[in-house]
Design brief:
Elements: H1 2-13, H2 23-30, E1 35-41, H3 45-60, E2 63-69, H4 71-80, E3 89-92, H5 94-102, E4 106-107, E5 125-126, E6 131-136, E7 138-144, E8 167-170, H6 177-189, H7 193-196, H8 200-208, E9 214-218, H9 221-230, E10 235-240, H10 241-249, E11 254-257, E12 264-265, E13 268-273, H11 279-290, H12 292-302, E14 305-306, H13 329-347
Parallel strand pairs: 1-2, 1-3, 8-9, 8-10
Antiparallel strand pairs: 3-13, 4-13, 5-6, 6-13, 6-14, 7-10, 7-11, 7-12
């Protein structure tokens, strides 16, 4: 009964993008634990703790404990803690979200508990609310602005004769590594991304011709970014707005190109853990993340495209042309291990 009252009180207080005025009092009155454990990528910890979490904590009275690591590690934690979860909310890549959903580790989101869900673009809501993309960082080609002052207009630049030994690629172990695979298939076959993603043999044929231009293949993105910023590399494939544009805003001599062939959607999902120890707080946290207030902060501080259709973009925000492409994640998950082995043989 206490849980039911807590949930009804929360729903009555929740409004899209506004403070949950009744929530702090609810915590005090019922003695509800204030701590909410949220899992996510270690790389997002800085701006989340500085710009995002304090707003939600002030709105709700909760205290957010952030557990930063890679999506695959968070998946292993969800599996290990299935009987008694420690995390209530997790931010993960879409392919890992799909695995977690298939294994019954996620609790579906509803508009009753998270009203802002109704304002999210339909394409950002997966499997009837199993998880939701709370933001869309877009991915293209990062480049050194001092070496390439005119920028980059096509993915063909990665294969250009003048870029021998000056291109950085993400490993297929990294989600952003998939974009180079799809681009290679597109350039080899002429098919649009939606069809080219299934032409893996063609992709590897094209990638083989890229090898002379490759300086390094990374699994650690920040270390590779240093090579680009120092001018040791000129181009870095598969890069995304929520890292490269933050670096550029901080004065690094880098830009992010949206090539004419199209850009990609870096998956940024949020979900509620099945059996979450603090379900009401989890719903409140997720609702805040899906609200226009937090999405505007994310757009301003990390240069992402919001998924809440009512979010106003900051002055000067540059929206890239075209709709970011998201692949068939079920197809990726079925084949990724084999692709990684093939990639390692080719690039090794």
């Amino acid at each position: 009964m206490a849980h039911a009252l807590s949930r009804r009180s929360l729903l009555g207080a929740t409004a899209a993008g506004t403070a949950l005025a009744g929530f702090p009092a609810l915590l005090r009155a019922q003695g509800t634990p204030r701590d909410l454990v949220v899992g996510g990528a270690a790389g997002m910890a800085g701006y989340m703790k500085e710009f995002v979490f304090p707003v939600i904590e002030k709105q709700t009275g909760m205290r957010i404990i952030f557990d930063g690591t890679r999506s695959l590690v968070n998946l292993e934690k969800l599996r290990a803690d299935r009987a008694s979860p420690r995390m209530s909310v997790v931010l993960m890549d879409d392919p890992i979200m799909q695995i977690a959903r298939d294994e019954g580790l996620l609790a579906p989101l509803t508009t009753g508990a998270t009203p802002n869900l109704a304002k999210i673009r339909p394409d950002a809501v997966h499997f009837e609310g199993a998880w939701v993309n709370y933001q869309t960082p877009w991915a293209g080609i990062a480049y050194n602005k001092e070496l390439l002052p005119k920028g980059v207009d096509s993915y063909q630049a990665l294969w250009a004769a003048g870029q021998k030994g000056r291109v950085i690629l993400p490993s297929l172990q990294n989600t952003e590594g998939l974009w180079t695979l799809i681009v290679a298939a597109h350039l080899e076959t002429g098919k649009p991304f939606a069809e080219a993603q299934y032409e893996v043999d063609a992709a590897f044929r094209k990638l083989a011709t890229l090898k002379p231009n490759v300086l390094t293949v990374y699994t650690n993105q920040p270390q590779a970014e240093n090579l680009l910023e120092s001018g040791e590399a000129a181009l870095m494939a598969g890069q995304f707005s929520s890292y490269t544009l933050i670096r550029a805003a901080g004065g690094a001599p880098v830009g992010l190109a949206a090539p004419k062939e199209g850009i990609f959607a870096m998956p940024s999902g949020i979900c509620k853990v099945k059996g979450a120890p603090n379900e009401a707080m989890a719903d409140a946290f997720i609702d805040a993340f899906l609200g226009s207030t937090i999405q505007r902060i994310l757009a301003e501080k990390s240069f992402i495209l919001p998924t809440n259709t009512e979010t106003s973009l900051p002055d000067g925000f540059t929206r890239p042309a075209g709709t970011p492409f998201a692949p068939d994640w079920a197809h990726v998950n079925r084949n990724r291990e084999a692709w990684i082995q093939r990639w390692n043989q080719l690039m090794g």
